[in-house]
Amino acid sequence: MKNAIHRFLNRLGLFVPLLLFFTFSGCDKFHVDETYETKVPIYLTMGDVRSSTFTIVEPKPFESTGKIYLYKDYLFVNEPNKGIHIYNNTNPADPKAIGFLPILGNFDLGIQNDHLYADNIVDLLTFDISDINKPVLIDRQKDVFSVTYKSQTGNRDVITDNDPVSIIAYKDTIVNSTYEETYYPDQKDLVYYDSSTGSYNNSGSGSNNSGSGNQIGIAGSLARFAISSNYLYSIFQDRVKNFTLQNPKSPKYVNEVKLGFGIETLFPYKNSLFVGANNGMHILDISVPTKPVEIATYNHVLACDPVVVNDNYAFVTLRTGTVCGGSQNVLEVVDIKDLKKPKQVKVYDMAHPHGLALSGDFLYLSEGDFGLKSFNVKDVLNIKDNQIQYLDDLKSRDIIAGPKSLIVLGPQSICQFDYSNKANLKQLSCISINDKK
Amino acid sequence: MKIYTLCLLVFILTGIQEASAQFRRYINHTEFGVLAYSLNMKESGFTAQTFNGYLLNPDFAIGGTTGYDRYLVSNFSNYSVIPVSLGARFTFGAPATTRFIAGLDAGYGFVWDSTPKEKLNPNLETKLNGGIRINPEVGLRFKMAENSTFLSVTLGYQYLNVKTENKFEMPMPYYDYNLNYDYYPLNRTDYTSSVKEDLHRLTIKVGFGF
């Protein structure tokens, strides 16, 4: 008996290590202590932004430009993510800088009856601009443009007042950090624990940008804000959000129409809203503004595409670009006499077309770095033969055909032209831009 | 330290017990094998070692072990190791041609980096220091002839501790996938780190002895 127990124990003595062996999984464990010098950001939180006062400051030079907007005799130029430059454009030959309205996270604006609507990260602001020298913030609609934020603690749909949204400054710091990593074969990444870093948000608000018996401003064709019959439409990610301006001092979110990703520009015309998307053009019926209805989708190849329209035709530009992924540089003319059945009329090859503007029978087209072209588009089948002028040294992005002047936004300048003589644009003035791009 | 005390204790006890018996007092056990993370053998290294010991009784020997180990660490670095260990070998089970063998080698591993130069960042200065190496094993021992010659097959576990000191003076790209690049400057300078590495492996070895 004693022997049997002995033998059993002997076997157990081998069996246990064997069992351990077959279930064992080796690894490399790293305990890392590291020290390095770096610049650590000092953050501004959403709470700081919301509690700050927005006051106009002295005019300052442009670092970059976004959307241009013309309201009465005032020209508004957005500096993406920074705010709005305001000019008195009573005399287009000599626009006078009024000031800069700093709005963090601002990309777009729309103006109606002396109320300026602008996005501020995830909020929609309303300013009273009856005194253009002193815009006054009168309303803030919180979180109307919020997206899903990724953070180390998981995904969230709202930014809280404590979330950092921007960096004010950096300070040089020596960082000491300690963490552990474990490596197993077949594992794609290291298992990662970091005790030194906090949780920071991904705060890129994918916000947006343009512009009836109401006094409304004129936006360029690249606009993503549009005001029509007391409603503010705004492109937001894959949808068009609709705000009522019945109470102009406090826009209220009404609803939204989902159109799919890649929508880029808005152009309201009569009872329709033309939405330029990188896979086509959507037409929304906004005759009942509270219920925008998509009535047609015109599809074409992938490209970036601003739209302008008149009663019969829509003019759409498509261009190649890394962001939009297009492979064609063309001007397309689309027959929209029947809004429900848009039909392609003709396609013209262009150099690198961006924004465009329509004034009567004349079409002005930005060719990006290749200049500015003007056409007589009365005969839509022969647009190319009716090119009137080609300013090949004027780099341009977007155009507004204003009542007093044709305003051309380019990477290096905002130039205005007298276009009373359509055949010969006469330069009135240029505001230079220090564009780093 | 506990292990050494234990060895000493066994040494004394067995020594007293078997002091009068007559048998050959010297034993050698030389082994070759793989250093694997697990039985799938992925990313394995190898080991070769020889144990020379003194038989306190016919079934128990203590001595010293040395050899050469080569590790593939995290599918990137190659470490070379020369171990210097105290060792023990214990044969057990009923007397027969095939018996069980258990071994333990515990000591220090001298480590240097054998990673191909082209894989390393020239601006990164790395210094490797060795550390404790422990290798318990268990297996079968096959007697080959009337003399003491034998073959062995063992399975075991091997632990090695390595310390690395890293220095990086050039700006270093900041890699942290939890953070948004826009909100962090993309470099760190004067980077130093000290890393304690615990390498855990399985060993599968074949050997011979006399």
List the keywords:
heterodimer; A: 437 residues; mainly beta; four-stranded antiparallel β-sheet; 2 helices; B: mainly beta; Porin; eight-stranded antiparallel β-barrel; 1 helix; 8% helix; elongated
Strand content of chain B: over 45%
Q: Could you tell me how far the N terminus lies from the C terminus of chain B, measured between alpha carbons in angstroms?
A: 29 Å
Q: Uncertain regions of chain A: pLDDT < 50 for 5+ in a row?
A: 188-213
The greatest interface here is: A-B, 44 and 45 residues
Mean pLDDT of chain B: 83
Physical arrangement of strands within the biggest beta sheet of chain B: 1-2-3-4-5-7-8-10
Structural class of chain B: mainly beta
How many beta-strand runs of chain B?
10
Q: Return residue spans of chain B where pLDDT drops below 50 for at least 5 consecutive residues.
A: 12-20, 174-186
CA-atom Rg of chain B in angstroms? 22 Å
Distance between the termini of chain A: 90 Å
Total number of distinct structural domains of chain B: 1
